[in-house]
Amino acid sequence: MKTKKSNQKSLVSKFFLGLLLIAAFSFIGCKKEPVTLEEEALRKISNLESLMEEARSKSIDVTREETVLWFSKEFLKFANWDESNKDAVAKLFGYERYYADKKDQMAEELPDFERKKVIQILDKGIEALNKELSGETTRRPVNKVDWQNTKAGDNMFVSNGKPSFPYDYFSKTVGQPLTNKSVYNDHLGAIYHGGENLYPVDHDRAINSFLLKEDGTFDEELIKELTGIPDTNIGFLIYWSMGIPEWVEAKEPEIRKGRSLFTGFDIDNPVARDLWGKIIRRTGELTKGKKVTELGYIFANEPHWFSEKDHWTYKYKEMNGISSYTLNNFKSWLKNKYNGNIKTLNSNWNTSFTSFNNVNIEIPIDTALQGKPIWFDWNRYNMDRVTNWFKFNQDELHAVNPEADTHIKLFPRTFYEDSRSHGMDFEALTELTTMIGHDAKALGGPSIRPQIKSDWVEQYAYKWDGMAILQDFLESVGPNKINVNSESHFLSSGMWRDMHARTSYVRNVYWLSTLMGMDANMGWFWARDPDGSPEDRLEGELNFFDPGLGGAYAGSNNMQPHIANEVTQVMYDLNTFSEEIVKLREQPRPLRLFYSETSAINTSNYMTKTGKLYESLFFEGLPLGFVTKNIIEKQDNSIWNTVVVYNTKYVTNAEFNALQSYLNNGGKVILDSSKSLSMNEYGQKRNKKLTSGKGKLIVLEDADISKIKKIALAEVAGQMPEVIIESDNGKDFKTTISRVVKQENGTYLLNLLNVGNDATKIKLSLKSGAPLTIKNLITSNSVDSDFNLASEEVLLLEIK
């Protein structure tokens, strides 16, 4: 039997138990749902907006944060579209074979991936602005590109009296009007352009073969695509030569014989020339003086005419044979080359043609013939005929529009890879056009294609060398020309992409390329419509002639808010410090590598070996350059100090004589071996040898790269900067790129970039031994003379 006391105790216990249950139910009832990623991002957006209001009240520039906000809001919208359209997104992932087997998983993960990256850029933006508000950093206000009034100057674009580096995306979303601020703005860039035409008829203001009708009149509806471009923003136009009308093909059966990947007709065909001559003149007249041409007319997209057997371009119908027009022109070229002496040709080729009219050749040509006279003659002619084609283009344009700026989107691999059967003489084409044009690229990580070597990852954070050697060569040929990269493949390409790409890589590669000469760039590529859906060309069944486009969307910056934002942020900084960047890059190139197109044609590994020597000298604190016969003859020889001749067995008499003339006038040449310069273009032994003349000739014997490097650096020791940069990454190779220039006020500008996988210890001092103070120009903070430079870090310093 329970007592009264125990009953009371039981009642109290039940009372307290009841209170606990009520409290528990109350807690459960008011417990909030987990915060979604979008909600977290929206809260951070609100936080950043509040900080921006505070900054504005203190007259602090918030241009950078405005871009963070814009990309954050856009990609939250994009993420919602991707979440509602997973089947469409999976399909787009499936077009890229690297992602095809996991396309459904990628589509499932993409929306939250984008939201997480939005949160990251917001956190970074909030942190940066808090530092500015607290006085921990002081940033220079952003110097924006003036999209309406930027002009092409002598060797740079100029905006509001300062050097300017315009930026945008090539092949921007089709179907959107050029006045749409969701596509053309400071964040994505606002360069108007007639972009890539990937259909058999005009689709994007590209100037193509279909403008001219069979009756000789122009298609006025297509012409309106040009004349209707608003004359407000700067831009460029491209001649897109991929297609050819059916009426032309019916009139000229050979029109497609000898076509190339992106030029759908024979450039030697008189009907094609007549067609294009009329189109170029008409469009040149209609667009004369328009702002959309301020960045020039582009004569071709990645032109090449590879004409060797078993090349990858053969399956795309490139140079599967040659037309009678090409062959006849070749015969005339040979007759001139051999001074009408068919016996000399027969002796060279080991043939028995009775006259030049009977000469024949098999194209594609067998690579086993490399180094033989027939190989040289064909490949040299192929280059000359291509140069002649582009000269025809430019002559037609300048006949009606003499002030028109021109360039060609040169395909980088055709320069830095070994094959020379492609017909592209980079020097001649760069001399021809008024601007430097190309689409230099880099790989931010190992290639996604297993057949492509990625051995560079052992030394470097990204593959920088192809972009660098191309620009150093082009800038050596055209030192006073504007440099336009009209399709910069820094963010993704057919060879590389990474959903988790590093923002440090983006900053480093855009900075380095601009430092090396790039004045404007249009990135590959922006394909989002403002509602988040992919642009018109990426909807429905994709069946492009060029398989690269279909898979280009997957893993691109269209899915990467952190990457898209960083592109704009680094371009803001480059434009803000444009005067400093120009000072750093307009330095002499005291050390030059001799480049011979003759040896490049005849030697199977010429560019591979040249690239190795170039790489060994790249990190020594001096900008590198090249010389050729033409550079020696046309440019002031005093702007360089030493020329290195390496792995250059074959040169023409004209090339040899140019080097001898340089020595006679007091030049300095390092010759790696007696084998170099020993043969003419046909492999015939040269009796002459270089002599020192009034200059200095250093002849080595089969020297390796390390010995050549040591001797070359000793010769230019007097040109080394007064700021000493010691770098130690713990390896037996360097990865820090440095450029120094003395300013009028006695201070020094120093730019450092680390392209290595690891941090590098840096120690700075002056040759004079004087004490120094160092300021980080980006943050205005002081810097010690000893510090660590992180992998892919970029520093712009002022030294007193």
**Proportion of β residues?**
5-15%
CATH architecture name of the largest domain: Alpha-Beta Barrel
Strand segment tally: 25
End-to-end Cα distance, whole Å, is: 97 Å
Helix content: 25-40%
Task: Give the oligomeric state.
Answer: single chain
Report the CATH superfamily of the largest domain.
Glycosidases
Strand count, sense and barrel status of the largest sheet are:
5 strands, parallel
Describe it:
With 800 residues, the protein is an alpha/beta fold. The chain folds into four domains: 37-134, no CATH class; 151-321 and 376-544, TIM Barrel (Alpha-Beta Barrel), CATH 3.20.20.80; 591-719, Class I glutamine amidotransferase (GATase) domain (Rossmann fold, 3-Layer(aba) Sandwich), CATH 3.40.50.880; 723-799, Immunoglobulin-like (Sandwich). It contains 23 helices and 25 strands. The strands form six sheets. Strands 5, 6, 7, 8 and 9 form a five-stranded parallel sheet that branches. A five-stranded parallel sheet has the order 14-13-15-16-17, sandwiched between helices. A five-stranded antiparallel sheet has the order 19-20-25-22-23. Helix 3 (63-84) packs antiparallel against helix 17 (561-576), helix 4 packs across helix 5 and helix 15 runs parallel beside helix 17. The longest helix is centred in the first third of the chain and has 32 residues, at 103-134. The radius of gyration is 30 Å and the shape is globular. Mean pLDDT is 93; it is low at 1-12 and 195-204.
